[in-house]
Each structure stands twice: as structure tokens, then as C-alpha cells.
Amino acid sequence: MYDTIKSEHIHPTFVALGDIDDFKYINDHYGHMCGDYVLVSIATIIKDILFQSVGIVRWGGEEIVLLFEDEDVMMPKAMLEQIRQKIEAFDFNFDDQHIQVTMTFGLSAVLDDVDDAIQNADEHMYQGKRSGKNQIIS
């Protein structure tokens, strides 16, 4: 799996998996054009916060994978928290309707295998979903 997201410039030490909370509801209630607007807006928010040494890949419909090269877990956590807060506070306004959007993230260290780290990040993310959403679990 990592081969599909590997970059010659990114040698990740941490992997985060993020999922837009209740994205299916957004698509079903407001329409797929709104869902696309939310995806593009979130991509812009993330791009504005992240450093160039962070890789980002869309993973499935509304999930993203972030690859961090930082050795200190506090930096990826701080960046994810900035993203989480900015998404929560952002005024998603589509067709004159305000839409509350949040995201849940799982963060995992890359020990030996990136696929294992993605799996761990995915498990952390779902733990965050089950325990209230809109949070970061590592």
C-alpha cells in the first residue's frame, strides 16, 4: 500500500489518518456538490497549515493520510490540533446554509512498516469516532 503513496522526499516517522465526521450525512442532506465543496475547503485548510515536509494523500472518499517526517510526536500532534480546530471553526457556507464540519484523526509512529502504522492510525481514528468524534487519538 505504501508504494502508492511513497514519495522520494518523504520518509515518514508518523502517519495520521483523518476522516471527516458524518460526511455521508453532508452528502445525503446537502448534496454531493456540497460534499465536494467541503472536501476542497478542508484540503485548502490542511495545505495552509502543513509544512512542505508533510505528505498528504486522499484516502478513500473522505479520508486523508498525512505523512510526517518530524522525530518529535509533539509537532504532528500540534499540527493536527491546528487543523482540527480550524476545520471546527471554519464557516462552511454552501447555498446560504451554514454546515458544521469536524474531523477525527488517528496518529501512529512508523516503527518498521508504514502499512502497520496506517493500520494503527486507522484503529486510533475509529477509537476517536466511537468516543465522540472531533478529536485526535494517538
Automatic annotation (TrEMBL):
Query: GGDEF domain location, by residue?
Result: 11-138
Q: Which is one Pfam family of this protein?
A: GGDEF
Q: SMART domains, per this entry?
A: GGDEF
Q: Which InterPro entries match?
A: Diguanylate_Cyclase (IPR050469), GGDEF_dom (IPR000160), Nucleotide_cyclase (IPR029787), Rev_trsase/Diguanyl_cyclase (IPR043128)
Which chain positions lie within coiled-coil regions? Answer: none
Check the record and name the PANTHER family matching this protein: DIGUANYLATE CYCLASE DGCM-RELATED, REGULATORY COMPONENTS OF SENSORY TRANSDUCTION SYSTEM
This protein is called what? GGDEF domain-containing protein
Species annotation: Amedibacillus hominis
